[in-house]
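Predict structure. Input: SAM-dependent methyltransferase, 276 residues.
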Amino acid sequence: MTSTTSTTPRADDEQLKQKHRAMWASSHYDRVAREVIPVLGERIAARLAPAAGERVLDVAAGSGNAAVPAARAGARVVASDLTPELLEAGRTAHPDAPVEWVVADAEALPWPDASYDVVMSVVGVMFAPHHQAAADELVRVLRPGGRLGVLSWTPEGFIGRLFATMRDFVPPPPAGVQPPPLWGSEEHVRGLLGDRVTDLAFVRDHVEVDLFPGPTDFRDYFRENYGPTLMAYRALSGQPDRVAELDAALDALAAGADEGGGRMRWEYVLVSARRS
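Output follows.
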């Protein structure tokens, strides 16, 4: 049986959170998760191996590409996300999956300490603007000995370079907001988690993407479906020269990553640990 619950995000940065929510609600990230990177949810579920009856929390779950495999393994799964539209897309796509869909802020999770046996996030929590606050929450709701898994794009990989490319075309973020790909840096994550975890491991891998025959196919798809890219173009409304510059920059990025026939490798790091 599925259900949807809502919580209220913190008031001190509500405007920033509203912008983030609107960015993902305006896009079709559920399509990206389903068509481009569906394997990532399966990979983190395989790494963490949730068992029947275990309590699992998927933070910044989107449409549930990690929550659903965990639930089908028999775990009791909650998929939480700041954006109700993404959760609804997941609930609609997987009506029979035993997942509870909960609107919640990754930086202020509504559950008591030590509520879960497994806490995970797949290219999700990395977009929370305040990394330390989000990391603190991931650890807080995990029971001692529980398993943590966070899969993030690396700064050096294709999506990390996508963000670096778009940076010159968007307004600077508010003070204190950190770049999402930092979650793909081992040094950064070690600093976020500190001595609160043991058995900390970093596994770099990649997802093979062959959905885009050419650079313009990639650019058009991401402009339509991927929230950060969509918002970058919206920020350039009424500036045709700048739009053309961004077009060219994204085309060059995709062309440079093409290994032949439109095949690309997008690097990520899968961080796993146990709470001390």
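Confidence is low (pLDDT under 50) at residues 1-11.
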